[in-house]
């Protein structure tokens, strides 16, 4: 806030406009003390006088003091602008926020209602409201608020649609925050900048509309001091007293101009980066525990916090559903790290997201089961999923900078995650736990860094904080989706070492999603290799590297840089991962496989003894040389 104010003051035009608006506000509040006369007292002996020592801005056709009426008019103008914009914000922003965030039928219904409302011209709507409720400033401004609220609704919807796709929202969902919390504490502050700008500009517009309605005699009762009314009254007498329209005319023009210049300035300053502008109230988080889920089927094996069986995920396509994950089964033990590895598009991320119930819009689990700590995830509603997310399973995303909310301090974000799972902790205990979490992820001087914002951290540091956020509730399962891809090699190694250490110390089951076999070798105990939505091989990492059984695994390993130097080009895998709408009828890897036979095309190949290949035994070894030769040519 301090930074924004300082930057605003450094811009002469914006500072002048802000000063002008502030002055109008002060005049409005102190009007009774500042006005030299009662604005309604008439003096027929002194009508239509020019400026004089007695009446600095002269008198009007009823002998009323123009300066006093101008001062009281500021009160009407301020009330009209504030009232209108506040009502419009209160109606438009929540509706737009919900429509944009929830999408689906909510959005469709609201947008159609908005279309209908848009079809009615604004002024006609204002006249209709005034006709029903009667003239008067409040009624007139209610009409204007309704029109403004539609505008705020469209703006908030568009902003929420954009924010909802950002990773910090996914991170908030995966840490178990309720929808209300996400909307009010995560998304809304990030929408603040454009809303503030729009509000400032609307204040000027509201003032102009109030003046116009008063000018037409539809605003305040005749006689009351309003700038529009003063202007309207002066038009009939301007030949006798040409000065009369000037004071209200200038007041309206300059105030509207000031609001617009201020709005532009605020927009420019906020566009350069936003800060926390939300009140520092402690969030009221509803206590929620697994006890609220009586239907959980406990799996017999307590040592396996993540058990995925036969998982399939599909998205609606032009010609029916497209399956992007097919019958994936993975089990991860406590203190074990499973690498989910494969080329881009092989379904790794969708598998991870399905575990947290955060598939992108349209995506759905079409078959299989997912048990986290014995709790079935598939088919559960959002409230039940919230109980599991964050507390039992958490996720770390690739780019830490977009996974953290840019407008909240680190202390606030980690603190919120802590409170979310331990609502009864005192402020001091929450702070202690935050420091402990930052220490756990090896952030130096954690006390001091709690007040910093994400942009004050390097990529590696920010990723540690994301991991601290994920660990806030001691989850049994941590899904890390390419957690080191956005980082340099040294930082990558530090993060992997830290994950390994946390896994051993806390007993967390980790799923490490990566396309990099080097990461698997470094940080995983077992690996599941995915191709075109299926797991094609699963084995202990040592076995996988020593004796890969699937031709795809073998090709991936051959394509790995060894660091041995030399001029030899790395072999590549011929062809590319097929689109999920055009899969081979048999083995999905067959079109790229060097050891393919007719049998491979005959029927889908099942996963047997950890590998999905008809030639997993000795037979394909013979073809391997041919495969590598072919790869090298590519
Ligand atoms: N929102 C979506 N709508 C439709 N299809 C999607 C959507 N998101 C992903 N997919 C499809 O799902 C498949 C699997 O994607 P996924 O992101 O899981 O792959 P990945 O192995 O994690 O790849 P990457 O490493 O590039 O993230 C891809 O074919 C992709 O096109």
From TrEMBL:
It is found in: Cell membrane; Membrane. InterPro entries: AAA+_ATPase, ABC_Ni/Peptide_Import, ABC_transporter-like_ATP-bd, ABC_transporter-like_CS, MetI-like, MetI-like_sf, Oligopep_ABC_C, OppC_N. Pfam families: ABC_tran, BPD_transp_1, oligo_HPY, OppC_N. Keywords: ATP-binding, Cell membrane, Membrane, Nucleotide-binding, Transmembrane, Transmembrane helix, Transport. Residues 74-263 form the ABC transmembrane type-1 domain. One of its GO terms (cellular component) is plasma membrane. Gene3D superfamilies: MetI-like (1.10.3720.10), P-loop containing nucleotide triphosphate hydrolases (3.40.50.300). Residues 308-557 form the ABC transporter domain. The chain crosses the membrane at residues 12-35, 80-101, 122-148. GO terms for molecular function: ATP binding; ATP hydrolysis activity. It is a multi-pass membrane protein; Peripheral membrane protein. The keyword NAD does not apply. Residues 270-292 are annotated as: Disordered. GO terms for biological process: peptide transport; transmembrane transport. It comes from the Bacteria. Its main location: membrane. Residues 278-289 have a biased composition (Basic residues). Coiled coil: none annotated. Belongs to the ABC transporter superfamily. This is Peptide ABC transporter ATP-binding protein. The lineage of its organism: Bacteria, Bacillati, Actinomycetota, Actinomycetes, Propionibacteriales.
């Amino acid at each position: 806030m301090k930074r924004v104010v300082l930057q605003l003051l450094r811009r002469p035009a914006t500072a002048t406009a802000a000063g002008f608006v502030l002055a109008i506000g002060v005049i409005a509040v102190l009007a009774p003390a500042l006005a030299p006369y009662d604005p309604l007292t008439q003096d027929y002996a002194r009508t239509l006088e020019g400026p004089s020592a007695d009446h600095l801005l002269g008198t009007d056709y009823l002998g009323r003091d123009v300066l006093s009426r101008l001062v009281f008019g500021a009160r009407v103008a301020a009330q009209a602008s504030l009232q209108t914009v506040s009502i419009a914000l209160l109606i438009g922003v929540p509706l737009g926020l919900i429509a944009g965030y929830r999408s689906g039928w909510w959005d469709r219904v609201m947008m159609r209602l908005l279309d209908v409302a848009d079809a009615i011209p604004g002024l006609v709507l204002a006249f209709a409201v005034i006709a029903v409720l009667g003239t008067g400033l409040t009624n007139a401004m209610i009409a204007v608020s309704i029109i403004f609220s539609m505008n705020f609704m469209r703006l908030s919807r568009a902003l929420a649609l954009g924010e909802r796709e950002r990773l910090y929202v996914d991170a908030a969902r995966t840490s178990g925050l309720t929808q209300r919390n996400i909307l009010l504490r995560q998304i809304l502050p990030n929408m603040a900048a454009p809303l503030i700008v729009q509000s400032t500009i609307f204040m000027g517009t509201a003032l102009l509309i109030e003046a116009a309605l008063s000018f037409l005699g539809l605003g305040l009762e005749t006689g009351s001091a309003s700038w529009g009314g003063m202007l309207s009254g002066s038009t009939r007498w301007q030949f006798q007293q040409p000065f009369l329209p000037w004071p209200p005319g200038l007041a309206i023009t300059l105030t509207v101009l000031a609001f617009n210049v201020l709005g532009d300035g605020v927009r420019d300053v906020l566009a350069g980066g936003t800060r926390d502008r939300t009140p520092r109230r402690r969030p009221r988080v509803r206590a929620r525990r697994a006890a609220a889920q009586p239907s959980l089927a406990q799996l017999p094996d307590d040592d396996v916090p993540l058990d995925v069986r036969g998982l399939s995920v599909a998205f609606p396509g032009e010609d029916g559903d497209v399956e992007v994950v097919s019958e994936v089964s993975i089990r991860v033990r406590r203190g074990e790290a499973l690498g989910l590895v494969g080329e881009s598009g092989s379904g790794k991320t969708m598998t991870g997201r399905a575990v947290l119930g955060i598939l992108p819009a349209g995506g759905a689990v079409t078959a299989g089961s997912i048990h986290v700590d014995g709790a079935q995830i598939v088919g559960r509603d959002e409230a039940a999923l919230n109980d599991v997310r964050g507390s039992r399973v958490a996720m770390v995303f690739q780019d830490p900078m977009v996974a953290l909310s840019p407008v909240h301090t680190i202390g606030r974000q980690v603190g919120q995650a802590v409170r979310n799972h331990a609502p009864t902790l005192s402020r001091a205990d929450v702070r202690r736990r935050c420091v402990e979490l930052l220490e756990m992820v090896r952030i130096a001087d954690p006390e001091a860094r709690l007040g910093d914002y994400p942009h004050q951290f390097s990529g590696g540091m920010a990723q540690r904080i994301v991991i601290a956020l994920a660990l806030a509730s001691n989850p049994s399962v941590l899904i890390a989706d390419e957690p080191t891809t956005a980082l340099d090699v040294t930082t990558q190694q530090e993060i992997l070492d830290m994950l390994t250490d946390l896994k051993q110390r806390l007993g967390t089951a980790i799923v490490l999603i990566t396309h990099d076999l080097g990461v698997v070798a470094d940080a995983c105990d077992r690996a599941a290799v995915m191709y075109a939505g299926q797991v094609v091989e699963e084995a202990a990492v040592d076995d996988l590297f020593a004796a890969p059984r699937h031709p795809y695994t073998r090709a991936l390993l051959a394509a790995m840089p060894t660091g041995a130097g030399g001029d030899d080009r790395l072999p590549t895998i011929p062809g590319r991962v097929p689109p999920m709408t055009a899969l081979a009828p048999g083995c999905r890897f067959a079109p790229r496989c060097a050891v393919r036979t007719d049998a491979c095309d005959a029927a889908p190949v099942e996963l047997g003894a950890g590998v999905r290949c008809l030639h997993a035994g000795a037979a394909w070894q013979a073809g391997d040389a041919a495969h590598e030769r072919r790869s090298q040519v590519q």
